[in-house]
Structure formats: C-alpha cells, structure tokens
Amino acid sequence: MHCGSGGNLHSKCFPWTPAFLFIPIPWKKQIRIRCDKVVQPMPNAPLLARNDLAVRAHPMKLKFIACFILGFVTSAAHAQVDFPLERGPIVAHHLQIVSSEFVVDVYQNGKLVPAKQHTLEKEIYGAQIERVDLEIREGDWLVFHVVNNDLRGDNFPRYFVVAGMVDDKRSAFVSETQSGNWFVCDNVQNVPQFITDRDYHGDGPAHRLTVHWSDGDKEISQRVPGWSGDPIWGTSHEPWIKYIVAAPKDQS
User: What is the pLDDT along the chain (252 residues), one digit of tens a residue?
Assistant: First the structure.
C-alpha cells in the first residue's frame, strides 16, 4: 500500500482508520491504494472514487472494507456522549406521589432513580402513596412511568399526582396542565428519547383527568398542605409523564 508521493500508508492519510487494517494480509489480489491516483489496476475490478482517492479492489475484499466502514459509522452514530448538564438552583428535596395503581420507575435527567431512594408510605388495594428523596434543580427533567390496570374497573380509575417538596410543609411544583411543562408519551417506541432528551415532548401535553380516584385527592392533600394540583395522565393504561422543572414559585 502507498500514500502520497510513495510513502507507506498510515494514520496520517486516514486518521479514522484502525491500525489493524494496515497489517499486510496475503490476499491473492492485493488491494492497492494511492492518495493521488490508482496504481496497478486489476481487470474487471470495481472503481470507487471520492475527491483525490480512488480504489480498485477485488469484489470480496471491497465488501469487507464496506462492511467495516458501515459498522464504524453506525457505532459512532449511536454512541452516547455525556455532556456537562447546566443545572440551576435547588427547587425541591423530595417528591410526594399518589398513583393508581403505581409508579414503575422515576428518571431524573435521563437516569433511573435508584430504588433505595423510594419509600412506600401507604398501599390501598393496589394504589400506592410513595416518597422519593431526590435533589431537584431548576432545568432538570423528571419522567414517571405509571401504570393502571383497566380491568379493575371504576373503583380504581387512572390516577397520578405528584408534588416537588421543599420540605414537609411547602411545595415547589405540582402536577397540572396550565404551565405547559408537563408532557406525556404513550408510544413505547419513542420512550427512550422521551426519557433522555429534555426537549422531546413525546405525544404532547399531559391530560387532566376529569374522572379519577377521589380518595387520591384526599391522600395527596394530607401530605401536601394547600394542594392545588391536578391528576394527569396520557391516553393509554401505561404512559410516561415528563416534567421540565421550572423556577420555584416564589421566583417565578
């Protein structure tokens, strides 16, 4: 193999190509590459050209190179890079949740909140009241995976409310539909992006439940003084609900 004025082909010519591709291989028909022109062309071999680079190769060898490059590009496209997240001041220190039937998982900024931070406070025939200890800052986003069993009938309809608590007496935010900061995703195929991408809104704004579990209102009111939020949901029995954390009420 040659490059430029006849020197050896190395990473200076193709910095994106792994070194092992340049190890000599005893092929019957060796691939010949020059950066400026084709050398020793082989009969009936396909020709690829891009700018000043041209390649003539045996079809099987060309297929190998094409498959490798495709895999390299695909891997790079799907690689996740963690960029520093700019977070604002602390808004709340824990979440108070009441749901029918329950919250499967909670995510903060695309990462699963560990189970050890969840505390089940009460269970009412399957419906659950729980607390999640979590430092929540302005600019964060939270995603709740909630589930309801529609087969249980009208006694336990869909219900989900949550409050971000400064302490046991004061709330910083509550579930509602007026702020435009609550969204829902019912399409399972879009859930990964909904969880990891702060600005992806899934199926749009969350819906306020007009028919819901009345005992849930009593439970949340006992734990969140001055409760003024709404029960929200999506369109399926198993939605993912997102909240993009805004500035605290007293700073709005």
Answer: 444 444 444 433 434 444 434 444 444 344 343 334 444 444 554 444 434 333 444 454 444 444 444 454 334 333 343 445 778 999 999 999 999 989 999 999 999 999 999 999 999 988 999 999 999 999 999 999 999 998 887 767 899 999 999 999 999 999 999 999 999 999 999 999 999 999 999 999 999 998 778 899 999 999 999 999 999 999 999 999 999 999 876 543
Cis check: omega of the bond before 101, within 30 degrees of 0 = yes
Question: Each residue of 134-158: b (16+ CB within 10 Å) or e?
Answer: bebbbbbbbbbbbbbeeeeeeebbb
Structure tokens at 169: 């007496």
Return the structure tokens found at 28: 């019957």
**Residue indicated by tokens 């336990």:** 156
| Burial label, 105 (beta-carbon count in 10 A; 0-12, 13-18, 19+) | middle
CA dist 237 → 74, 152, 185, 234 (Å): 35, 12, 11, 8
